[in-house]
Amino acid sequence: MDINTALPLVIRKSKAHSGLARGLHEAAKAIEKHNAHLCVIADDCDQPDYVKLVKALCADHNVKMLRAPSAKALGEWAGLCKIDSEGKARKVVGCSCVVVKDYGEQHEAVEVVQQHKD
Prior knowledge:
118 residues; alpha+beta; CATH 3.30.1330.30; four-stranded mixed β-sheet; two-stranded antiparallel sheet; 18% strand; globular; Ribosomal_eL30-like_sf; Ribosomal_eL8/eL30/eS12/Gad45; ribonucleoprotein; Ribosomal_eS12
């Protein structure tokens, strides 16, 4: 299992266990309260101040930071979409930042993400 398949799985499992903070406001609160295990930010985030703030918070609180390919992909992984009858994501809302507060259960994907060097 590589990081590209493990990261979406970890985010989905975290959401299922109510351990996910989505968006800048929720992410900043989780990081500052020392509840964050992992921060994921979208590569296509076009707000330099947003990226700078998230990086600074992660550095100050020793939170591991990873990159997602796009805000749409991150939004889909975080559950910010509707699922149609065929199981495909529709009306996906982009999300620039997600913080994992609780991994849920320990599984192989969590270990892959924790071992990954950014």
